[in-house]
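wait is this the right file?? whatever heres the structure
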């Protein structure tokens, strides 16, 4: 890489809803944006020109990097309960195979323009790669006891060991988080709340399948079958006559940034409830994973209407065909094209950086930031931008 790079394109999308035209980015070798100047000031000397448009590196707010060895191992369209059961079968694989898959997946995300990742951890398998990766990782060490307080002390010991091993150097962060409303007892929620700093971000899977809400509404649905199949008692499951989100949120701290993940079956009332609970709620959507597992997507218009702070994730290679936030954008544009295109860029960039607490460094193209630069090879045309055959690749 040259000590200083000068790059430009017909349009530069800042990542926060704004656009630059007739501008040149002056970027140091470290990736730091030193200046943004008018094209007329530089002429053509030493300027690298791109067609299409440029944008910041994207933020993947939900991934399971440690499951990368399971690509194409689990059938599509089975529903969440059968999907989870299948995942368990592929956990005990030769460690070198797991490590190699993690390395490839991390490189894939970097090449695809992903600058930071919120990564779910049930093991310490990813710690070494994260300590060496150019990607910033927020490791969410995920705890669950399947509503069984008798398991809680053992679960805490098990995952505290994982937490200790996860990298928090090299710009990385970590926190302890609950898995999902249906898998965390009141005792474990209490432990997590008491052992989380206000400055930390929390992640929790939310309303990914109809059976999750059915379980809390009237003690019915496929989720109870799953509990029975793994030998977990169902008498500990609270029957609240409400959706699962109303069980989980009161047991968490509204002062924390909280990423609710998937939200496939969220209603307008659920979104409004969470927005009232805290202004620090972010909604992570993983559209390709939702299609892979459940053959359905959230109704994005509900979130747009509520001014919800949306982010995007890839989930894992177990439930996706690739790890690319740009491919998630393309899927939303394909199936719900009414979502404003510039909103999707903000979801992928600045909102994600804010959710993970990296917004002072990345998420938008601004002087003094090191956001990474991504080239998209199609013309920018506002909401009419045709991304169907587009690619997004890292430039810096």
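ok assuming it is, sequence goes like this
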């Amino acid at each position: 890489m040259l000590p200083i790079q000068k790059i430009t394109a017909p349009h530069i999308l800042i990542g926060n809803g704004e656009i630059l035209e007739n501008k040149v980015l002056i970027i140091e070798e470290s990736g730091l944006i030193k200046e943004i100047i008018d094209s007329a000031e530089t002429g053509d000397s030493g300027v690298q020109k791109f067609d299409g448009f440029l944008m910041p590196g994207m933020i993947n707010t939900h991934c399971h990097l440690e499951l990368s060895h399971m690509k194409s191992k689990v059938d599509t369209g089975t529903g969440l309960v059968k999907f989870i059961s299948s995942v368990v079968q592929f956990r005990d694989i030769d460690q070198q195979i797991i490590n190699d898959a993690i390395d490839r997946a991390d490189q894939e995300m970097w090449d695809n323009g992903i600058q930071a990742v919120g990564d779910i951890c049930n093991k310490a398998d990813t710690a070494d790669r994260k300590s060496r990766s150019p990607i910033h990782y927020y490791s969410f060490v995920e705890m669950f006891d399947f509503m069984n307080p008798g398991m809680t002390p053992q679960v805490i010991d098990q995952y505290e060991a994982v937490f200790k091993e996860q990298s928090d150097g090299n710009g990385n962060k970590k926190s302890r988080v609950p898995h999902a409303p249906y898998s965390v007892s009141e005792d474990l929620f209490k432990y997590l709340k008491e052992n989380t700093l206000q400055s930390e971000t929390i992640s929790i899977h939310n309303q990914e399948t109809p059976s999750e809400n059915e379980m809390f509404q009237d003690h019915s649905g496929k989720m109870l079958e799953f509990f029975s199949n793994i030998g977990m008692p169902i008498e500990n499951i609270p029957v609240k006559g409400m959706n699962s989100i109303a069980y989980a949120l009161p047991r968490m701290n509204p002062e924390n940034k909280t990423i609710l993940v998937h939200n496939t079956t969220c209603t307008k009332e659920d979104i409004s409830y969470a927005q009232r609970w805290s202004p620090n709620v972010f909604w992570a959507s993983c559209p390709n994973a939702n299609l892979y597992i459940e053959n359905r997507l959230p109704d994005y218009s509900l979130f747009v209407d509520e001014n919800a702070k949306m982010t995007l994730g890839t989930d894992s290679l177990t439930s996706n065909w690739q790890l690319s936030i740009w491919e998630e954008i393309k899927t939303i544009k394909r199936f719900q094209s009414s979502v404003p295109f510039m909103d999707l860029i903000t979801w992928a960039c600045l909102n994600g950086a804010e959710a993970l607490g990296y917004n002072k460094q990345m998420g938008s193209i601004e002087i003094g930031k090191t956001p990474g630069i991504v080239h998209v090879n199609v013309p920018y045309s506002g909401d009419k931008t045709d991304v169907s055959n587009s690619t997004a690749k890292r430039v810096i």
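The CA atoms of residues 129 and 306 lie 38 Å apart. so i think its the right one actually
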